[in-house]
Specification:
By secondary structure, the protein is an alpha+beta fold. Helix content is 53%, strand content 15%. It has a two-stranded antiparallel ribbon.
Length: 137
């Protein structure tokens, strides 16, 4: 067991970026086995080998400062993707989330119309057929 501790003393170890590289290598390896034989080329297998070698190299690296910079770059990239997703969900509220409006249908053309909630009896004009009707909301 001493040889194991001696190998990993002062090394960077397994962190998130290494795990991401190992997962990509596993997916490429799985893809190379699932693909039909006539499509199977050495590219997915070679890609898996490259990603696995990069992950292993990162785990066994002694240049901890450089590996921390790479980890921070991954964190910043991941934060950008998370912020992009948050902006998208904020721009488009889910169904039923905006309680200030209700959806009614035009009696002539069945077009859905969004009208303000709680205004009492209002006169609604359909944008499609220009029909006018009254509705209590």
């Amino acid at each position: 067991m001493r040889w194991y501790k001696r190998i990993f003393t002062g090394r960077y170890g397994v962190k998130r970026l290494s795990v991401v590289l190992f997962v990509i290598a596993g997916l490429l390896l799985l893809w190379s086995f699932i693909m039909p034989v006539y499509w199977r080329r050495s590219m997915p297998l070679m890609g898996a080998l490259v990603f696995f070698a990069l992950g292993l190299w990162r785990c066994l690296s002694r240049n901890i400062g450089r590996r921390l910079q790479e980890e921070r770059a991954l964190d910043m990239l991941w934060a950008r993707f998370r912020m992009l997703g948050q902006r998208t969900t904020q721009a488009f509220p889910r169904r039923g989330e905006d309680s200030r409006f209700i959806v009614v249908r035009c009696p002539r053309c069945r077009q859905k119309l969004r009208v303000p909630r709680g205004k009492g009896l209002i006169r609604i004009t359909c944008k499609r057929c220009t029909g006018k009707f009254e509705r209590k909301v």
